[in-house]
Amino acid sequence: MSTHSKTEVAIGGAVLAAAIAFAVYAGQATGFSPGAAGYPLTASFRSIEGVNVGTDVRLAGVKIGTVTDVTLNAETFRADTTFSVANGIEIPDDSAVVISSEGLLGGNFVEIMPGGSPFYFAEGDEVLDTQSSVSLMTLLLRFVSGDNGGE
After folding, report:
1. What are the extents of the domains in the chain?
2. How far is Cα 12 from Cα 16, in angstroms, rounded to an integer?
3. Fewer CB atoms near the end CB (10 Å): N or C, the chain?
4. Taking all residues of the chain, what is their mean pLDDT, rounded to a whole number?
């Protein structure tokens, strides 16, 4: 083999290794890695603006799961959401699920606000205490127009 062919093979191998590394990283970052086992919970929101499949689910700022499904309930006109929680993490059954923002210009995520109940959610349970996302545009329009929310 000539030197030219060995160089091409080495560069091709490096590109292939980089592509595999990127695919593994992308799988882990989006929650599709095979080791990311968990149990599903559901919640219904009035608005989930900024939340999609793959959005982080956090508890105390630590990622413990991901949003796995979002559908519109045609009867209630609410967004029914399914999310996974890592195995080994027990969520008290009086906890709340809130759509939170990472900051003024950051993205949204699902935050679990733990309650104090001695009982825990089981696989497939529905979290009833939810708080929807707050639209930044709505808040700005209220501020500019002087609307104080009906007070």
Report:
1. 1-30, 38-143
2. 6
3. C
4. 83
